[in-house]
Each structure stands twice: as structure tokens, then as C-alpha cells.
Amino acid sequence: MKRVSFAEFGGPDVLHLADTDEPHAGPGQVRIAVRAAGVNPVDWRIREGQFRQAHPIELPAGVGLDASGVVDEVGQGVEGVAVGDRVFGEGSSTYAEFAVLTAWARMPEGLTFEEAAGYPSVVETALRVLREVDVRSGQTLLVSGASGGVGSAVLQVARDRGITVIGTAGAANQDYLRSLGALATTYGEGWVERVRQLGHVDAALDLAGAGVLRELVELTGDPQKVVSIADLGAPELGVRFSGVAGSVPEALAEASCLIARGKLHIPVEKSYPLADAAAAHIDSQAGHSRGRRVIVV
């Protein structure tokens, strides 16, 4: 089968599409014929070797965590899913023709494979950081880097919970943030004052790693009210860095409910064929996204 992999840590040019043996579902797993794979910042952070000290990996390694597709193998002990089911979920080496998933759910009605592939890690992360920052109905949450996949999910889930959201993003994405129910403003010079003009901030999330943690602490008045998923230096300022995933099956179940209620929709900004995985990583690293990027198989 075809799989995107890398044999050394480095830039996007280390990614190669190559033939490899097919994986097989072990106990508690399913294998899918992949239709689409989500592109997440963690994918290129792993490719660069940012986590190799804490989480060593054996090279050559595959790429990708999220995927949607059709079940074609069911591992021992797995119940409630059958060959032929359309599912989305999380596993490993998902930029490939076949991938093994360790967490999955049936695709919600009305979603395409491309759309479904953009949800798993994004929604798990959004739900996790909202829980960790402990923002509640009636309060105001500031989201730095709000237009990407996680930000899109955070804005919609927060609004559904009665939380006012202020989002920062590039000038081109202001209307997009407003369409998700956020009070929007641009980043760049003077952004702190622009946020203050929009209202008091009770808690804040750093989703882009744009070097704004000091300002977020200033706006909230307390580093314990700030959570980052993108700045590894967060603990130096007393800010929590959230990098350990919670329950993906629970997140998928909640995502399915939100989608069914019409409360969650994450658009696909751009799709790429397997052979263009490097281009997908280049675009992901450049930021300024609106929704999700996915690999189509």
C-alpha cells in the first residue's frame, strides 16, 4: 500500500510517499480503508522532532493521527462496529491507503469523508482545553489564533455553553469568526487594547503559539486562567501547557451530538492528495487557516 513517511527528522522535504506493508487491526482496534486524513500541527511537530525526547519514535515513521474511512478489519474484542461501516477517529500513520484506529465512531449523517477527517483530534483538544481553563456560562473567553480547526471548534462549543468568546485572527478571517458567534479582532500592534475594548476577559486560550502568553496573563490577571496548546515555554510563565489527550471516544460522541444538533461545523479549507503531504504541512505551518486541511486518499 502507499503511505507517507519520513526516515529522518526535518522540514517538509523529508516526507515521501512510498510502498509499505499493510497494517492490521490488533485487539481493540479496527482497520479502515482511508478516505481522508486530517492535517494537524502535531503532525509536523512530530516530523520536525520536537517531541522526540519525551516520546521517542522509531524511524522510518508514518504521519497522521486522524482519519475517516470504511472499516475493513475488526480486531479481537471489538463490538458495535462491522466491516463496511463508515467511521472517523484517531490512530496512527493515517496518511495512507489503510490505517489502524484505536478510537472511532460512526460518521454523523450528512458529513463527507473529508469533513469527518477534520474532527477527531480537533474536537478532543477543544473540549479538553475548555475543561482545563474552567470557563463557565456567563463568562468571557479570549481565544488567540481562533480561526483554525481547534479555534473553530472552541468558539462553537463555548457559545453553545453560554460563554462569550473574543477571538483574534488575521484580517481576512474576521467575518469568519463573527459567523461562529465570536467578537472578533485582529492580532498585531495594539491588539491588547482592542481586546479590552471588547470586554473583560475571564480566561484565555493560546492556540497559535504566537508569543502572546504574557499579554494573555495580563488580560486575565492570573496565569492559572490561561492554557496553551502551542507554546512549549508556557510553564515558565506559570501557564498550563496542554498536550496530553483525554478520552477520544468521549470527544467523538460529543462531537456527533453537536453536529446532529447543528451546533458544530468545521469547514475544510483545502484538500491535498497523498503525494502532496509536504505542501499540506507547509500550509499548516504558515497558519492563517480557516477551518481544516485534509489529505484525500
Main beta-sheet strand count, sense and barrel state: 6 strands, mixed
- Rg over CA atoms, rounded to whole Å, is 19 Å
Question: Per the principal axes of the C-alpha atoms, what is the gross shape?
Answer: globular
Percent of residues in helices comes to 25-40%
SS elements, strand count: 15
Series of H and E elements: EEEHEEEEHHEHEHEHEHEEHEHE
Strand content: 25-35%
What is the chains' assembly state? Answer: single chain
Uncertain segments: none
Q: Give the mean pLDDT.
A: 94
Number of helical elements: 9
**Distance between the ends:** 11 Å
Would you give an account of this structure?
With 297 residues, the protein is an alpha/beta fold. The chain has nine helices and 15 strands. The strands form three sheets. Strands 3, 5, 6, 7, 14 and 15 form a six-stranded mixed beta sheet that branches. Helix 3 (120-133) packs across helix 4 (149-160) and helix 3 (120-133) crosses helix 8 (248-260). The model has no long low-confidence stretch (mean pLDDT 94).
Could you give a quick summary of the protein structure above?
The protein is of the alpha/beta class and 297 residues long.
